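As a warm-up, study this chain.
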Amino acid sequence: MAINEKAAPVAGRAASGRTFDDVIIAEIPKNSREVYRITRRDFKGYPLVDVRIWFDDATTDELRPGKGVSIKLEALPEIVAALSGLIEGGRL
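Now compare it with the structure written out below.
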């Protein structure tokens, strides 16, 4: 089954027991077994953007979260500007 055909739960319970709901903004293929998933969520009242690699777990045939980062929504414009500067400056 291809990665884009699989569905992973986007609402769940955090390890701490607090609940959160993820809204998938985008999924960008990384390779045949992984995708970059960008989600929007709230955690402890803070709006966050999560950029994380999700991988194909061969034992369960489901996508599982891997390494990533959660960014406070207020910091997102500065991060986007820095990344855009890489593209515009031809540093890629």
